[in-house]
Amino acid sequence: MNVVARNNVVLRGREGGQAMLFAHGFGCDQNMWRYVWPAFEGAYRVVLFDHVGSGGSDLSAYDRERYASLEGYAEDVLEICSQLGLQDVVYVGHSVAAMIGVLAAAKEPERFARLVLVGPSPCYIDDGAYRGGFKREDIESLLESLESNFLGWSAEMAPVMMGNEERPGLGKELTNSFCRTDPEVAAQFARVTFFSDNRADLRRVRTNALVLQCSQDAIAPDEVGKYVAAELPSGVFVRLEATGHCPNLSAPEETTAAIKAFLAA
After folding, report:
1. Residue-range definition of the domain harbouring residue 223
2. Mean pLDDT of the chain
């Protein structure tokens, strides 16, 4: 299958420039980067795409076995890079897509120049001294609620993830994005996401990486971002003034400035 059509790949920016690939998180699509990517189109070849099962991707390409782990999504990233002939890629991944980028860069380090990990979490479940932010029973309850009433779960959880209660329009946008996702795909993607454990994979990455952390993030708390940056052999931790889990929507100017500073260093 043509991966450009499968993943609804869209190319913007400077043809022939260094590639900058933007990957969205759970329940979202490439539209979530619309306030960020235009700041880079003058200098970079911007590559936008949707994970299979999300946005304008080809839903018929969704394979429960392939996407039973984040490795399947990482393979998609590498296939996109291969088909487009991309090298020296700046990969920008939000939430679960941050770990997808970690897996892709660990497998084919020659493809990637820099990683930008926005709100990453290698493991959402507390484990001994490690604090991921959730107990296993909390995750089980969350997933049971999602599987029994996806629309209701979306209306409740999306504003929590977004934060910024004083700006309800942001939470509504994320809710609507969740609701456009196929419920069966969303249920499996959520289960794969929240039960993933990629802590050991962080040490396999040799690419310079920026970890962008928001305060009051209900999904990836502060200590998780610090853990990711510390475990990466070449990780840099930056805490944004932004709050919530989606600074690409709530604070795009600050997010953009932090990325530019990292790329210029």
Report:
1. 3-264
2. 95
Query: Of these residues, 51, 54, 245, 250, which one is catalytic?
Result: 245
CATH number of the domain that 152 lies in? 3.40.50.1820
Q: How far apart are the first and last CA of the chain?
A: 39
Separation CA 168–CA 183 (nearest Å): 24
- The pair phi, psi for residue 49, each rounded to 5°, is -160, 165
Give catalytic status of residue 95 as yes or no.
Answer: yes
Q: Is 245 a catalytic residue?
A: yes
- Which own/partner contact pairs does 99-103 have at CB distance under 8 Å and 24+ positions apart? 99/70, 99/196, 99/198, 99/201, 100/23, 100/70, 100/73, 100/74, 101/23, 101/74, 101/77, 102/198, 102/201, 102/202, 102/205, 103/70, 103/71, 103/74, 103/198, 103/201
Q: Which of 95, 121, 177, 196 is catalytic?
A: 95
Number of domains in the chain: 1
Taken in order 94, 97, 100, 105, the sign of the CA dihedral is negative
pLDDT tens figures, 173-194:
888 888 888 999 999 999 999 9
Q: Is 217 among the residues known to form the active site?
A: yes
DSSP summary character for residue 19? E
